[in-house]
Predict the structure of Alpha N-terminal protein methyltransferase 1.
Amino acid sequence: MESENCQDLVDKMNSCEDECIKETSNIPQESAAKAVDVVNAVAESNVQEPKFYGKAQKYWSEVPATVNGMLGGLGYISAIDIQGSNTFLREIRVPGKKLALDCGAGIGRVSRNLLIPRFHCVDIVEQDPAFANKAREYCTTESQPVGSLGEIYNVGLQKFTPTKKYDLIWSQWVLGHLTELDLVDFFRRVRQGLAPGGFFVIKENVTKSKEIIDDDEDSSVTRPLEHYDILLKTAGFRIVRKVRQQNFPKDLYPVYMIACKPL
């Protein structure tokens, strides 16, 4: 994360709070109050974590560019994960099939197995250069039945702004690497990158409590499900479907898929 002094962060938080209040005018009063509380609560954490992004980048630079590496040694759950995601996409019925975006794509596991078979072209966002290079190889096999790999944006999500209109923007197991401020900003930018009728889908670990849990090893956080609900609505989305991934090992965090459309 680029360095900011305390006054800059305070000013940014005040601006974010103002926008939060404006954009929650159509949210029930209790939820709107929670949204403001969420935004207010992150000021201190952002000031205390100036190395948040650098530490995560270093961690992933040491991870093998394999499916097992992407899944933290749990490569055997990949097929179950893709099956659950396929079912979810069938349920929400994305109208367009032209262009999709895979955010935090890693080596392109989701792009290759979920998105490319469904869309004519799939762009990916991945900040690690080794993963991005592997994705180009992994997602350009001759056996792909439908689509192809498009652009690879080698940048972190905190700095990424869509320049196209996507029928589907998919983000999985990456949002825990964004600070709260950058997460809301990312949601707002994504909203502007959707084609008419397009969906934004997130698939993330969530805590079993109402607390945010820090992981110092990979410099990430795991948020409560309600936290995502509030921030998505604050950023101008309405949630149209929310489903828990089934058949994962019981000792893992619950994993939820949330499909959204702009308000």
User: Anything to note?
Assistant: Residues 112 and 139 are 5 Å apart (CA to CA). Residues 1-14, 20-25 have pLDDT under 50 and may be disordered.
